[in-house]
Amino acid sequence: MKAKEDHSKSIEVFSGSPWEAELVKGLLEANDIRCVVKDGILGTLAPYIAPAVSILVTEEEYEAAKSIIQEREKPAGE
Questions:
Q1: Structural domain boundaries of the chain?
Q2: Angstrom distance (rounded) from CA 75 to CA 60
Q3: How much of the chain is helix, strand and coil, in % rounded to 5?
Q4: Are 34 and 61 in contact (CB under 8 A)?
Q5: 56 secondary structure, DSSP code
Q6: pLDDT tens per residue, range 13-37
Q7: pTM listed for this prediction
Q8: For residue 70, what are the CA distances in angstroms to 28, 53, 61, 67, 75?
Q9: Hey, which end of the chain has fewer CB within 10 Å, N or C?
């Protein structure tokens, strides 16, 4: 029996340094949002070539992920 295929698109929700991307990935996963790091290995091995890595989420989870990331970027006390 073949597994159901997921035909949803992946959308970039964050772009930043490799360490920032790992923090965002952990934050999203802690909120049950599936995500993928794009260019993570290259960004870690050769940051001068690929200084930014991206976090991708599905279309369905984009709005929730964006909201979580924006909440993270607010200064403390707001």
A1: 10-73
A2: 27
A3: 45, 20, 35
A4: yes
A5: E
A6: 999 988 888 999 999 999 999 999 8
A7: 0.73
A8: 12, 18, 14, 5, 10
A9: N
Residue 57 one-letter amino acid: V
Distance (Å) of CA 6 to CA 3, 9, 25, 58 = 9, 9, 20, 10
Chain segment 59-74, per-residue pLDDT in tens: 999 999 999 999 887 7
Residues with Cβ within 8 Å of 8's Cβ and at least 6 positions away in sequence, in order, are 58, 59, 60
Residue with tokens 């993270």: 72
Lookup: tokens for 36: 């993928």
State in words which class domain 10-73 has.
Answer: alpha beta
